[in-house]
Structure formats: structure tokens, C-alpha cells
Amino acid sequence: MSVSIYEVIEGKKCLATYILAVNDTINVINGKWKAPIISSLLFGKKRFKELERDIPKITSRMLSKELRDLEANGIVKRTVYDTIPVTVEYELTASGQAFEKVLDVMLKWGLEHRETTLAAGK
Predict the structure, then answer these.
(1) Does 37 lie in the same domain as 9?
(2) Where in this chain does the record put each HTH hxlR-type domain (predicted)?
(3) pLDDT 10s digit of each residue in the chain, 122 long?
(4) For residue 106, what are the contacts with CB-CB under 8 A and spacing of at least 6?
(5) Same domain assignment for residues 43 and 17
């Protein structure tokens, strides 16, 4: 299902539904660390320490909290293996994988915005 802001403006889609969907997206990426975690997991399953190494300056406590939030939102799947010691892997769900499209748009906008802003400041 593809919905654009123009369809909402033209009355083809419900504004309340659009706002809820945007809020859902913001809730998923809310905070400093969720987008980097998702970005790291786009490259495949990772263990906790691998994620910690991939994301500079994140604390273990914050990584743990953010992974729980992402799991609660259906973005990350946590798998515990019955090994000694216990092995835990994190991976993106199908919804998490689809979030790559959002990150791509954010990247494109960020690069364009940075270029425009820096050019205006000169």
C-alpha cells in the first residue's frame, strides 16, 4: 500500500490514519541509537557484542534498552540458543528489513539538506 501526502491533501485518504502512520514511524526511529542499530542489522544477524562494536559510543545499557524497544515494536527479532554459554542473536524482522526504504530516503534528504545548508552558509 503506497500513500502519499498528496492523496491525503486531496481527501483520498484519511488524515488521522496518515498522522498515526507517521507517528508509528517516528516511534520506531525515536532517539539517537535506533537508526544505527537497524542499519547495522541490515547487514545480517548480530550478537550483542558485535552490535556494540558496530556502533561507536553506545553503552551496553543503552543498546540493551533500544534492542528491547525495537523488539517490542516488531522491528527486531531476538533468538536465544540453548548453548553453553547462552548465545543470543538479533536480526531484523520483515518489517525491520522494509525499514531500509525509510533510511534510504532519510539519507538522501540528509545529504541534500546538508549540501543546501552548507552552501547557504558560505
Answers:
(1) no
(2) 14-118
(3) 565 665 655 666 677 887 888 888 888 888 899 999 999 999 999 999 999 999 999 999 999 999 999 999 999 999 999 999 999 999 999 999 999 998 899 889 999 998 888 888 75
(4) 35
(5) no
